[in-house]
Write a structure and sequence with these properties.
The chain is α/β, with parallel strands linked by helices. The chain has helices spanning 13-18, 28-42, 79-89, 102-110, 119-122; strands spanning 7-12, 51-57, 70-74, 95-98, 114-116. The protein has five helices and five strands.
Length: 123
């Protein structure tokens, strides 16, 4: 593993957005954009090193555009499956997945990724 590579932070947008009852269900696309914008400004709170942030969106949030500092990937099917594929494709670098989904956490830790919960990005 290339420990000098920036930390790859993969954010499960649906899970993170859904963890705060702020009316996100009325505008899933807008909620994902607000999360993206917060990540672009704050990065990963508490992490001082270089990082590459990927926000994985699905369903009604598909089509959210990338901004400087945050790459956005619209999952063609299951967001969880797309996140697992991203983790597997980056096996040569440190990876952190932000989600509270227990099954997804199991799947990505089996591939060597670290996991953290939505509070990490909510501050």
């Amino acid at each position: 593993m290339d420990d000098n590579a920036p930390l790859l932070v993969i954010v499960d947008a649906a899970n993170v957005v859904g963890s705060v009852p702020d009316g996100w269900w009325r505008d899933r696309h807008g909620a994902a954009e607000r999360l993206r914008d917060r990540l672009a400004v704050d990065g990963l709170p508490g992490h001082a090193g270089p990082e590459e942030i990927v926000l994985v969106v699905e369903g009604a949030a598909r089509g959210v555009e990338a901004v400087p500092g945050v790459r956005v990937e619209s999952a063609p099917g299951s967001g969880d499956d797309h996140i697992v594929a991203l983790v597997a494709a980056a096996a040569d670098r440190p990876r952190l997945v932000v989600t509270a989904d227990r099954e997804l956490r199991r799947r990505v830790t089996d591939l060597g990724a670290e996991v953290t919960g939505p509070r990490t990005v909510h501050g």
